[in-house]
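forwarding from the other thread:

> can someone predict this with heme C?

sure thing
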Amino acid sequence: MVLPKVHWRHYFGGLSFLILILQLTTGIFLIFYYDPTLSNAYKSVQYITNKVYGGSLIRNLHRWIAFSIFLSVLLHTIRCTLRKDFLHRKKRVSWLTGVLFLLPLFLLVVTGIILPWEWKGYWFMEMIPNYSEFIPVIGPTLKSFFIESFTLSRYFVIHILILPIISLILIDYHFLTLLRVRGIFRYMSRHALIAIPFIIVLIVLATYITIPSEDPEIIPMPLEGEYIPSPEWYFLILLLPLMYYRGDIIPMLSIYLPLFLFVGFAFLPYFFRGKETEEEEVEENAPMERGFRVIWDRIMNNRAMKGLITGIVVTLIFAIFTSLLYVGAYNSPTLGCNSCHNLSRGIRMGIPPEAFKDRNVLPNLNKNQWMMGHWFYPTIIW
Ligand code: HEC
C-alpha cells in the first residue's frame, strides 16, 4: 500500500504523531525531576516550574500538548471516517488500532493529572473510584480496588511505561509498519515542516497561559482557569452527569453511551461489507433526482469544489464536537484551586490530606454532587 505524499488528508494524522513525539520528549525531561512520592511530588513539580531552566515552558507544553493532541486526533478521525476508510479491508487494522489508541491516550491524560498531587490531582484520584462505582456488577469492588491500590509511584509507572508501550504497539500497527516501506524519515521530515505553525502556537500558549504555581507568593484567584482549555476537560465531560442527575441516568450517560459509541465506532469495519480495492467511492445507490445527481457529480468531479465541501464538512463536525466539550467544561476554574488550597493556609490546605484514602475521615469524597460542584463552583459549594 502506498501512502499519498503530504496531503491535507494526512495532515492531522502526521501532526498527531509529531506532537506525540514532542510530548514524549517533554515527558522524558519531566521524568528527571519528578519525584513520585506523596510528600515530594508537589514539591518536585514546583521545583521544575520555578527553578529548573525552561522547566515552566516544558511543563506547560506537556499540558497543552495533552489537550491539543485529542483535537488533532479527532480531526484525523473525522477525515478518515468521511473517506470511509472502514470500508477498505486493507485498512481494517489501521482503523481498529487507531480507535483503540484513544484508550491509552485518555488514560495518559487521567493519570497525568493526578501525578502533580496537588488538590486537582487529589480530586481526580478520588473521582476515578467514584466513577467506576457505576459500572454494573464489579463497580463496588473496582471502587475499593482503585482506592486501595493507589500509590503515586504505581500511577507514575503506568503513565511513563505501561501506557506508552501500549500506545507504541498500537501506533506501530496503525501506520508505522506501512510507513517503513515508504521511509519514515522522509514522511516525518515533510510533516515536520507543515507542523511548525502548530508547534509555534503550542509554545506561545505554554508561555503565556500557564498553571499558577508560585504560591504561596502569588496566589491565584478561585475562578482562575475558567474558559481556559485544559486536559482535565476530557475526563470532566464523562463526569458531568454526576453533577446534574441522580440515579440510573448517570451510568447511562457516563458509561453505557460512551462505551456503545466507542465500541460501535471501533468495529465499524465489521458492520460493513469490506472492499478489496482502494479506488474512490462511487455512490451508486443514492436515490437522487436525475438533475440533482448530475449537478452533484459535476461538483464532485471538480477537485477544488470537492476539497472545499469536504473541508467545510470536516470543520462543521469538528466544531460540533469541540463546542460540546467547551460548553460542558468552560466554567470549570481548573487553575484556581490553590487560591484556597495553598500552603500559606497551613499544611492541611496546602497538600492533600494524609487520610485521602479514608472516607470516614473525609466524607465529602463520597458525595459525588458535592465533589463535582466543588470543582465547577468552588466558591459557591464550599
Ligand atoms: C473558595 C475556596 C476553595 C477553592 C477555590 C477550592 N476549594 Fe476545595 N475545599 C475548600 C474547603 C474549605 C474544603 C473543605 C470543605 C469541608 O471540609 O467541608 C475543600 C475541600 C476539598 C476537597 C474534599 C476533600 C477534603 O480533603 O476535604 C477536595 C477534593 C477539594 N477541595 C478539591 C478542590 C479542587 C480540585 C479545587 C479546584 C477546582 C478546589 N478544591 C478549589 C475550599 C476551596
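The two ends are 59 Å apart (CA to CA). thats all i got for now
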